[in-house]
Automatic annotation (TrEMBL), chain A:
<protein>
    <submittedName>
        <fullName>Branched-chain amino acid ABC transporter permease LivH</fullName>
    </submittedName>
</protein>
<keyword id="KW-0997">Cell inner membrane</keyword>
<keyword id="KW-1133">Transmembrane helix</keyword>
<keyword id="KW-0813">Transport</keyword>
<feature type="transmembrane region" description="Helical">
    <location>
        <begin position="68"/>
        <end position="87"/>
    </location>
</feature>
<keyword id="KW-0812">Transmembrane</keyword>
<dbReference type="InterPro" id="IPR001851">
    <property type="entry name" value="ABC_transp_permease"/>
</dbReference>
<feature type="transmembrane region" description="Helical">
    <location>
        <begin position="12"/>
        <end position="35"/>
    </location>
</feature>
<keyword id="KW-0029">Amino-acid transport</keyword>
Automatic annotation (TrEMBL), chain B:
<feature type="transmembrane region" description="Helical">
    <location>
        <begin position="119"/>
        <end position="138"/>
    </location>
</feature>
<dbReference type="InterPro" id="IPR001851">
    <property type="entry name" value="ABC_transp_permease"/>
</dbReference>
<feature type="transmembrane region" description="Helical">
    <location>
        <begin position="47"/>
        <end position="65"/>
    </location>
</feature>
<feature type="transmembrane region" description="Helical">
    <location>
        <begin position="351"/>
        <end position="378"/>
    </location>
</feature>
<feature type="transmembrane region" description="Helical">
    <location>
        <begin position="385"/>
        <end position="403"/>
    </location>
</feature>
<dbReference type="Pfam" id="PF11862">
    <property type="entry name" value="DUF3382"/>
</dbReference>
<keyword id="KW-0812">Transmembrane</keyword>
<dbReference type="InterPro" id="IPR021807">
    <property type="entry name" value="LivHM_N"/>
</dbReference>
<feature type="transmembrane region" description="Helical">
    <location>
        <begin position="95"/>
        <end position="113"/>
    </location>
</feature>
Length: 303, 424
């Protein structure tokens, strides 16, 4: 019982982070109908920038935890957002009217570039960040206990905050209205005076920023990362996006939570060696059985 | 294009300043602060160099595209080049002369090249085989398969495991591996028929990763990350070892001194023959209705289906043929290395094969052969640039898609002439 509860706690935090990254996939897919293959690597870049930001902040003599975490969040989100913008500008904008195959291949190229760029400049070794926040709340359940670390609470809080802000932006602000209009009908939106190129760039930046949030949180919690982490987590976040219904924001969050929970339970109860196999199989199964996901609309094939 | 042409220096300067600022944001943290455990070092000079290069480069590009030549060039590349080049009906291919020449040179290679060169050329030929296989799936049928390495792994592990568990050798495994991989292709292909484009890419990627993870984790069967040894090929039962385990060895039978290069020569010759066989089969297939159907499906699936083409059969056949070629390549890879482990079958390998197809030109056989050699042999020659290899592949893929999405060698096709007396 205590194992199940503990895995539920772990799964919840993991799932909220998957949800954050999934937002990047789902928004880009919703607006230009392509999978941003380099998104997982944007997450990976943000993990590196997290470690660099912490190192720089401590170098300048800042020791207090709240300032470090806020500073790190701010720096990482800003720099990663710039990555999102540049990636769109270089690899996707020139291909706006090309075939989907061309865009996808260009995205794969971008992913290789990011991975190798980080590997060349920072080395292939695993890197780490110091543990900043220790301590936990413990509950006794039966013979064992369930432990919720403060870090996990922080992850849950910040990711919910991030999703909340994003939902507000998309639902209430002018920028969000522009995004939704572009998502519904790009041509019509541009006829009505929306600069759709700018909106698409903005969506890429928002997606990268959300991935950066996830990057900071996971890196602080887990401590270690290398240039290859983006690949696996990218596919998992994509699975979350597909599970929830690609193109739908609440779907991404829901899909993230479901994937995180089921993966944590699978790892805890059945086998942790095969948990990645589980996620990949889940992805294949969803795409075969219900490609439109839980909250998504079925895709209409246009002739 | 009747705009007044002249370089607007203000615009170029702003462009380059913006680019420089962005480069500072992008390169600053990752390049400028080198993490070293929980410690770090500053490397400002590298960042300064990179930013300077970006600023100067952006200024040059920005200025160039304001000149008359630049405008013309931008216009030329804005229009996408589509489809195949159609040759005149009476066109005689120069290949009639080139092919025998290439075969003759190819047959000479093992006898004049050193052992090192031979191993590099074998590797190149293995990638030619892989490229040809993926070219059927991606280039001809337009199904983006990112898990192609899975079939390669099936071939390689098929030889190693078949030898260990069933005592099957190289020759018996060659056709079996092709069938096994084709079967796996069908298993993968069948459920994903309903998907296309991006979804298909992700599912096949997942498939390739599942195979790699199973190979890594199922240690009792596959020996996990430690890998497993694979048998050498034999010539009518003659082995290419110094001492035979049973029966005779090649050098004893022919009264030759022992040389470890013999086995590579033999692998090369077999591989060379197989590559030519695959080339020939593919060449014929493309002209047959099935090949035409692949290409038609690539161009417009909905139109094909409404015209009554059985898309299930067409897609499955492409998947299975591509996969079986990958399986063949896997057998050669295993016997060439004498050893297989899961680290040879990562996603990067799939991306490399895809880069071969993309660079060579989707659907173009000649292009794929040239690209396979360029991408595998060049890094061997330019050893000092080896660490930039992946970066180059990435840049190549982006640049090719932006610049020439159909690859360097365009697909050509001989046109038809109307019959004499036919209605015009």
């Amino acid at each position: 019982m205590d194992i199940v509860l503990q895995q539920l706690v772990n799964g919840l935090t993991l799932g909220s982070v998957y949800g954050l990254i999934a937002i990047g996939y789902t928004m880009v897919y919703g607006i230009i109908g392509m999978i941003n293959f380099a998104h997982g690597d944007v997450y990976m870049v943000s993990a590196y920038i997290t470690a660099i930001a912490i190192a720089l902040l401590t170098f300048f003599g800042i020791e207090s935890f709240p300032i470090i975490i806020i500073g790190t969040l701010f720096l990482t989100v800003a720099v990663t957002g710039a990555y999102g913008w540049v990636i769109e500008r270089i690899a996707y904008r020139p291909l706006r009217n090309s075939s989907r195959l061309a865009v996808l291949i260009s995205a794969i190229g971008m992913s290789l570039i990011l991975q190798n760029y980080v590997q060349l400049s920072q080395g292939a070794n695993q890197q780490g960040v110091p543990t900043l926040l220790t301590g936990a709340i413990r509950f006794t359940v039966g013979d064992g206990f369930v432990q919720i670390t403060y870090m996990k609470l922080l992850i849950l809080f910040i990711s919910l905050l991030g999703m909340g802000i994003l939902t507000y932006v998309i639902q209430k602000t002018k920028l969000g209205r522009m995004c939704r209009a572009t998502q519904q009908d790009r041509k019509m939106a541009s006829i009505l005076g929306i600069d759709t190129d700018k909106v698409i760039s903005t969506v890429f930046v928002i997606g990268a920023m959300m991935a950066a949030l996830a990057g900071v949180l996971i890196t602080l919690d887990y401590g270690a990362f290398d240039f290859y982490v983006g690949f696996i987590i990218g596919i998992k976040a994509f699975t979350a996006a597909v599970l929830g219904g690609i193109g739908s924001l609440p779907g991404a969050m829901l899909g993230g939570l479901i994937l995180g929970l089921s993966e944590a339970l699978f790892a805890g109860l059945i086998s942790s060696d095969y948990k990645d196999v589980f996620s990949f199989s889940l992805l294949v199964l969803i795409l075969i059985i219900r490609p439109s996901g839980l909250l998504g609309k079925p895709e209409v094939e246009k002739v | 294009m009747s705009q007044a042409v002249g370089i607007n220096f203000k615009k170029s300067s702003i462009d380059s300043l913006v680019a420089g600022f962005l480069a500072l944001i992008l390169f600053g943290p990752i390049v400028g602060v080198l993490l070293d455990g929980y410690d770090f070092d500053f490397e400002f000079d590298k960042v300064a160099w990179m930013v300077a290069i970006v600023v100067v480069g952006r200024f040059a590009i920005s200025s160039f595209f304001q000149t008359e030549k630049g405008v013309a060039m931008a216009f030329r590349y804005a229009s996408n080049d589509d489809g195949a080049t159609v040759l005149a009906p009476g066109h005689k291919s120069k290949m009639v002369w080139i092919i025998p020449l290439v075969i003759a040179v190819g047959l000479l290679v093992p006898f004049i090249a050193s052992k090192y060169v031979l191993t590099v050329v074998i590797l190149g030929l293995i990638y030619v085989l892989l490229g040809l296989g993926l070219n059927i799936v991606v280039g001809l049928a337009g199904l983006l398969d990112l898990g192609f390495v899975g079939f390669y792994a099936i071939g390689a592990y098929g030889l190693a495991l078949g030898y260990e568990n069933l005592g099957l050798g190289f020759w018996s495994m060659l056709p079996i591996a092709a069938l096994l991989a084709a079967f796996a292709g069908a298993i993968l292909g069948f459920p994903v028929l309903r998907m296309h484009g991006d979804y298909l890419a992700i599912v096949t990627l997942g498939f390739g990763e599942i195979i790699r993870l199973v190979l890594t984790n199922w240690a009792s069967f596959t020996h996990g990350p430690n890998g497993i040894s694979a048998p050498l090929p034999t010539l009518f039962g003659l082995e290419f070892k110094r001492r035979s385990s049973d029966g005779q060895t090649f050098h004893e039978f022919f009264n030759l001194p022992y040389d470890s290069a013999y086995k590579y020569m033999f692998i090369y010759l077999v591989l060379f023959a197989v590559v030519w066989a695959v080339l020939f089969i593919k060449h014929r297939l493309v002209k047959m209705p099935i090949g035409r159907a692949w290409e038609a499906l690539r161009e417009d699936e909905i139109a094909c289906r409404s015209l009554g083409l059985n898309h299930v059969l067409v897609k499955l056949s492409a998947f299975m043929l591509g996969a079986s070629t990958g399986g063949l390549a896997g057998v050669f890879f295993a016997t060439y290395q004498g050893f297989v482990n899961p680290s040879s079958f990562t996603f990067f390998e799939s991306a490399l094969i895809l880069a071969i197809v993309v660079l060579g030109g989707m659907g173009s056989t000649l292009g794929v052969v040239i690209a396979a050699f360029c991408l595998t042999v060049l890094p061997e020659v330019l050893r000092e640039f080896a660490e930039y290899r992946v970066l180059m592949f990435g840049i190549l893929m982006v640049v090719m898609m932006v610049w020439k999405p159909r690859g360097i060698v365009r697909v050509t096709r001989t046109g038809f002439a109307t019959r004499k007396g036919a209605v015009k």
